[in-house]
Amino acid sequence: MGSTSDVNRRDVIKRAAALGLVAVPGMTALSACASGSDDSGDDKVDKGKKTDENPLGVNKEAGAEVVIFNGGYGDQYAKDAHKVYEKSYGKVKHASTQKIRTKMQPRMVKGNPPDVINNSGAENMDIASLIEDKQVADLEALLDAPSLFDSSKTVREMLLPGVVEKGTFGGDKLYQLNYSYTVYGTWYSQTALDKLEVEYPKTWDEMLAVCAKAKKEGMAGWTYAGKHPYYFAFTMYPFIAKIGGADVLKAIDNLEPDAWKHEAVKKAFDAYYELRAKGYILKGTPGIDHIQSQTQWTKGNALFLPNGSWVENEARKTTPKDFKMTVAPPTGLDKSDAMPFETLWAEASEPFMVPAKAKNVEGGMEWLRVMMGKESTQNFTKLVSALTCVKGAADGVELPSGLSSAKAALDAAGENIVSPRLPDWYLQLHKEKVGGAIAAMMAGDIKPDEAVKRCQKAADDLSGDDSIKKYKR
């Protein structure tokens, strides 16, 4: 291999280790190839002149490269935003994929990433590790720029509550912009409930009764993404908070000793296990993915589905016209719950980042500014049935059934909104360890007590690993 690049081998190896591309004992193979990269991040485009119309100083001649996660929201909204961007700046090179980690991590390691990455989906990269390794640009300049939605305010002033907090990691700078505002909960067809002549269950006894009635009619009570069991967290985490209070989730996020052994966790696990024990889970669910589970649900084979508000767009092709897609907060346990029934998990989601070694960092930020303008935010909501992180962006927009119910649930929750940080701070713990324990429990392979033990052990192991940065809230 030729040494045509000035990429520092140790930096490449360090980045690869942080990104999980290579284990420490196997670094020799990577270091042998490290100097063969043609892109080191040193060929950045020249900055443009800052003006009132160009507050970020974007080079008007330089192009930008944007990579979008082609999941529940598709990528048309991004293509439409490109057209707005290109009115003032250079051509946007567009790519979309469901394999963000597979496609993007090698480019992050080599130092030639795109200017914007929609770091989402089952293959999202570990943002906390990337930030720790200085691979992500902070977005403070973007936050302080004038908003394209309301020019009298900054981008920061136009963001919904919690958006900035969600994008910060152990400091006061924003590194990740979560564009969509997602409501997580239990999704169902109002038409199906009406046919069963039941109301949405507010207590667990009511949930079991509804599932029993559905079973008699040949319909399963629940299905879920068995291959991606962290989907269960969308109802499980707020259920735990509802039972024991928001501080239980805070203790879990903070990796406090015995946090997973809290009685609220045990009660929540026991309740969900009862769904499996009574045969209320659709047969074959542990082996299906999110798309398959959603399709079984829209076909009417299962009544309830744990999911986020992107599901209305993602499942659009298989959803009957009279389905009346609806979301509700997770069913509570009983009258002893610490938080009201309306409590749910809602937060800014669908993360975007600008890599620090991107060729056109300013262009990447400007593209995100375009995305938060009136034209792009309203287009996003109309196209994909989802709210954005910008205040008032959905005002005057006709909302479909699912999104309308999500907005209503959000309004009803008021201050009773929880937003666990475990998925951002400790991705592997959340997806593989906790998700794996819940998956094994819901498949009937282990009992709730064992699932709790596995979650606690995984949290303790991570807490004791000095190589992983810890966060607190």
Describe this structure in words.
This protein is α/β, with parallel strands linked by helices and 473 residues long. The protein has a domain at 183-347 and 416-463: 3-Layer(aba) Sandwich (D-Maltodextrin-Binding Protein, domain 2). It is 41% helix and 12% strand. The chain has helices at 9-19, 27-33, 76-86, 100-110, 127-132, 140-144, 163-166, 190-196, 204-216, 233-244, 246-253, 263-277, 290-298, 311-314, 361-371, 374-384, 401-413, 422-425, 427-442, 448-463, and strands at 64-69, 92-97, 116-118, 177-189, 220-222, 302-308, 325-328, 344-353, 387-388, 417-418. Strands 1, 2, 3, 4, 5, 6, 7, 8, 9 and 10 form a 10-stranded mixed beta sheet that branches. The longest helix has 16 residues, at 427-442. The termini are far apart. This is N-acetylglucosamine/diacetylchitobiose ABC transporter substrate-binding protein. It holds the Pfam family SBP_bac_8. Residues 42-53 have a biased composition (Basic and acidic residues). Keywords: Signal, Transport. InterPro entries: Bact_solute-bd_prot1, Chitin_NgcE, SBP, TAT_signal.
